[in-house]
Write a structure and sequence with these properties.
- The complex is a heterodimer of chains A (435) and B (464).
- Chain A is α/β, with parallel strands linked by helices and 435 residues long.
- Helices cover 30% and strands 20% of the residues of chain A.
- In chain A, the strands form six sheets. Chain A has an eight-stranded parallel barrel with strand order 3-4-7-8-9-10-15-16, surrounded by seven helices.
- In chain A, strand 1 and strand 2 form a beta hairpin.
- In chain A, helix 8 crosses helix 10.
- The termini of chain A are far apart.
- The mean pLDDT of chain A is 96.
- Chain B has three domains: 98 residues, Fumarate Reductase Iron-sulfur Protein, Chain B, domain 2 (Orthogonal Bundle); 155 residues, FAD/NAD(P)-binding domain, CATH 3.50.50.60; 137 residues, FAD/NAD(P)-binding domain, CATH 3.50.50.60.
Chain lengths: 435, 464
């Protein structure tokens, strides 16, 4: 069995699966159940400043989009930070941490952008024995209107400033949680690093309206006939989150900044992918909210099984493993030529590849009598759309052409050497360089 | 008191409650949730094989997608514009041999999308919540006679009425519906569905029906061709093939279709007599329906005897399995030899058969089965209509149903092709289009599904 214990910026946990700061981690009862179910750590639901807590709406807080069979693909929420008194949360955190010393317990915090506010809360969090803090600079709804959450996360200068305060008044790890509601994720990550952050975590939720009630003409979740944008999460956001994780992981300025990966992690495979792209651990929310805490068991067993199969003995060996292979488009090898190939034994003759290629791509699939679908190599640009729309896994594959073969589409011989756009004759910049 | 062991042919073999349970819907309607789960399985195939397998070419992927997107009534409209009896077809079609048999998920997982039940969900939604969906065109002043108010006649009449023609239906029986009303197993058409569907169909307007009018009896083809602009014959197969063996005239030897009709019309099934020991001769759907329903009425032993091998039976494997699951025994390679009894039938003598490739032959070995009631289900035939050319045992027709006589079209079981409700609907519909085109001097409209290949613009150069 591969060792799943994780050391993330000095915070140890029995496995890399943490529950993200969210409703599942709002109170002692849930967190104890989560630890008993096997979660490696939790980021406690975001704490606010001392005083009367925030209030939540009393109507629906969540909206959703579905895949087939009502599989929850995306969830959005308009819930705010914890609406329980600060003292209650702190007392519970202290109790839980003392009962589960080997599990990671992180305090998520969101207080006004004033040094005094942070100075006031940090010592109290310290007293709970929490392993670290996570700065909620990501929450896109409600709190942002009050100058907190993503309102801070969208201004790199504020991120750096607040991070600096935290490092000043708190001596355990500081993780900065980033909002994806920006244009270039590297900027806030750099700011966090400049402020002295030990790590960043991302992504927080994405601004979203999941659906509109067409009778009431109101976005959902609808509160008395009105709706507001919520924070979007779940499997549907995973590609966006992974790109942002990879962007930070391969940016020279932040290359060694530890990352806690968040965004649609539902299976061990999702976790492994995030880690390969640079995440030192992952945080999960929607999967737990959809299936319950027991979902972590599959993640743990799956990751361990896969690591055994691959010969990885510790989680560190997986982290960043795919980062060197994340590159810019201009460096992709233009001499790499593939062709789609349909496995006729696996094909069920639905014809979706044909419809997709014929109607929307390159007319590179022939429909023959008896509903036999065959790739026309002379037309196939290897776009992969047929693979993506085929309902049968591995029925269509992209087969690489060997060097020396002639691509029947272009009539050109496949070259074995690597060549990219930067030196391509059609590239005006390359032509200039050559002159 | 109900007594399953009453000798001979007797009513009340089962209690009223047992009978009611036995004759409920074979397939319960899908709930909204079940329908959405089932609809989600459709892959929206290109030029879908299910559509090609449907004699009426319903756009199945489209209607399933409409269910999936929360519009079952719109789905119903998609179905009904191709097949006005889509509700009955959803119940009685041998889907395992048509749409569902062709479904790619049958190939992928051995579990097709439940097209039949989804179709019922959609058409039921229309009938439950909406009135008639279609509007009549402006009156054309043309009058068309339709003989037979079965699936072919009704489909033809509806399409003609929709086109603005006046339609007069002549029906031999006292009720419309044909085999939907008088044939077909009761558990496939519960709650008087056949009659409700006809009533809904008639909502188009412009169709009137005269009952107890029998072609060749109190109705002649010549008076129709003289009195109307066109005639459509959907007369079905009114003759039942005789059982040519010793003792075939004994009491208890009956036509399966007559038994089924009586059962379908019975107000109280506990009052319907059935034998304790029943033998059904034949291998088609009629044999299956008679056998299963005998069993459901409480017959103790029900045997289907079919002279050829099992794989030659007209009834699908699904129907055969349904019969055996209800306790019906199927004996293949056994041909009727004689009906024995002292007055009424008591035993059915069968002779085993074999086919060495040179034709079916009796082996000489016989067996006897107790038989209070013997049902003939060995095929039906057309009552010939004077003046019309035949094609084998059916009326000769063109692709659009034209007979050899001017002004006369025909469709349904009386013409060549499979004797299925859905085929009859397609033939009636297509004949109506041809009648319309002929009467109005217009080009014949296509009735098939709009498939991707034909929908494509087509003239742009490929791959350019």
């Amino acid at each position: 069995m591969a060792d799943l214990t994780t050391d993330f910026v000095g915070i140890k946990s029995p496995n890399p699966f943490w529950l993200a700061s969210a409703p599942p981690t709002d109170k002692e009862y849930n967190v104890r159940r989560a630890f008993e179910a096997g979660w490696g750590g939790v980021v406690w639901k975001t704490l606010g400043a001392e005083g009367p807590p925030v209030v939540n709406v009393n109507g629906p807080r969540y909206g959703a989009i579905y895949g087939s069979d009502r599989k929850l693909m995306g969830l959005n929420n308009i819930e705010l930070i914890t609406d329980r008194p600060l003292e209650v949360n702190l007392e519970e955190m202290a109790r839980v941490k003392s009962d589960y010393p080997d599990h990671a317990l992180i305090a998520s915090i969101m207080v006004p952008c004033e040094e005094d506010a942070w100075k006031a809360i940090l010592p109290r969090v310290m007293e709970t024995g929490a392993d670290g803090i996570e700065l909620n600079f990501g929450c896109p709804h409600g709190m942002a209107e009050r100058g907190m959450g993503s309102a801070v996360g969208q201004v790199p200068e504020y991120i750096e400033m607040v991070t600096r305060w935290c490092k000043k008044y708190y001596d355990r790890p500081v993780i900065v949680k980033l909002t994806p509601n920006i244009t270039d994720i590297r900027k806030p990550a750099q700011a966090a690093k400049n402020g002295g952050a030990d790590a960043v975590s991302l992504i927080n939720t994405i601004n979203s309206i999941t659906s509109v009630d067409l009778d009431a003409m109101c976005p959902e979740p609808a509160i008395d006939g009105k709706g507001t944008h919520g924070g979007y999460c779940g499997p549907a956001v995973k590609p966006i989150a992974m790109n942002m994780v990879a962007e930070i992981a391969r940016d020279p300025e932040t290359a060694h900044l530890p990352i806690s990966g968040i965004g649609g992690v539902t299976t061990w495979r999702d976790a492994a992918e995030f880690m390969a792209l640079g995440a030192g651990n992952v945080q999960v929310c929607t999967a737990a909210m959809t299936y319950g805490f027991r979902i972590v068991e599959e993640m743990k067993r799956g990751l361990s099984q896969w690591m055994d199969e691959k010969g990885y003995t510790s989680v560190d060996q997986v982290v960043r493993r795919a980062v060197p292979n994340v590159t810019d488009w201009q460096y992709l090898n233009l001499n790499y030529v593939t062709k789609a190939k349909i496995d006729q034994n696996a094909c069920i003759s639905c014809g979706r590849c044909y419809a997709a290629c014929e109607d929307t791509s390159h007319q590179a699939i022939a429909m023959k009598p008896g509903r036999v679908f065959e790739v026309i190599d002379e037309e196939c640009v290897a776009c992969n759309l047929c693979v993506d729309v085929c309902p049968v896994e591995n029925c269509i594959s992209m087969v690489e052409m060997a060097a020396g073969e002639v691509d029947p589409r272009t009539g050109l011989t496949v070259q074995k050497d690597y060549a990219n756009w930067t030196t391509h004759p059609n590239n005006p910049a390359a032509a200039q360089a050559a002159e | 008191m109900a007594d399953p062991l009453t000798p001979g042919i007797a009513p009340a073999r089962l209690s009223a409650q047992e009978i009611t349970e036995n004759f409920t819907d074979l397939h319960k309607p899908l709930s909204m949730h079940e329908a959405s789960v089932a609809a989600d399985r459709c892959y929206f195939c290109f030029d879908a094989p299910c559509v090609e397998a449907c004699p009426t070419e319903i756009d199945i992927p489209l209607f399933i997608r409409q269910i999936a997107t929360g519009q079952p009534e719109a789905a119903g409209h998609t179905i009904l514009e191709q097949n006005i009896l889509g509700g009955m077809c959803a119940r009685v079609c041998p889907t395992e041999e048509l749409c569902e048999g062709a479904c790619v998920r049958e190939a992928a997982e051995g579990e097709p999308v439940q097209i039949g039940r989804l179709q019922r969900h959609a058409t039921d939604s229309v009938m439950a919540r909406q009135g008639h969906l279609f509007d009549r065109a402006a009156p054309t002043g043309k009058r068309v006679a339709v003989v037979g108010a079965g699936p072919a006649g009704l489909a033809c009449a509806h399409r003609l009425a929709m086109k603005g023609h006046e339609v007069q239906i002549f029906e031999a029986r006292p009720k419309p519906g044909g085999l939907n009303e008088y044939g077909i197993a009761a558990y496939k058409s519960t709650d008087n569905f056949a009659a409700r569907e006809v009533e809904w169909l008639m909502g188009i307007g412009g169709i009137s029906v005269e009952y107890d009018k029998m072609l060749g009896g109190n109705l002649s083809l010549s008076e129709l061709t003289e009195g109307y602009d066109a005639v459509f014959l959907g007369v079905g197969l009114a003759d039942v093939n005789a059982l040519d063996v010793d003792g075939a005239d004994r009491e208890g030897v009956e036509d399966a279709v007559g038994f089924i009709a009586e059962l379908r019309q019975a107000a109280d099934l506990t009052a319907l007599p059935v034998g304790r020991n029943v033998v059904v001769i034949g291998g088609g759907m009629t044999a299956i329906d008679a056998a299963i329903q005998s069993k459901l009425l409480g017959a103790e032993n029900v045997t289907i005897a079919y002279r050829r091998s099992k794989d030659r039976m007209g009834a699908s494997q699904y129907e055969q399995d349904l019969a055996t699951s209800k306790g019906v025994r199927i004996v293949a390679n056994a041909q009727p030899k004689a009906v024995h009894g002292n007055g009424a039938a008591a035993e059915m003598e069968l002779e085993y058969t074999a086919d060495d490739g040179s034709g079916l032959r009796g082996t000489g070995e016989t067996m006897r089965l107790p038989a209070d009631q013997v049902f003939r289900a060995i095929g039906q035939s057309i009552v010939p209509v004077g003046g019309l050319e035949m094609d084998g045992r059916k009326l000769r027709v063109s692709e659009t149903g034209r007979t050899s006589m001017e002004k006369v079209w025909a469709g349904g079981d009386c013409t060549p092709g499979e004797d299925l409700t859905v085929v009859a609907v397609a033939e009636g519909r297509d004949a109506a289009e041809d009648i319309h085109a002929t009467l109005m001097g217009e080009a014949l409209a296509a009735t098939g599904a709009v498939l991707g290949e034909s929908a494509r613009g087509g003239t742009a150069p490929r791959g350019a």
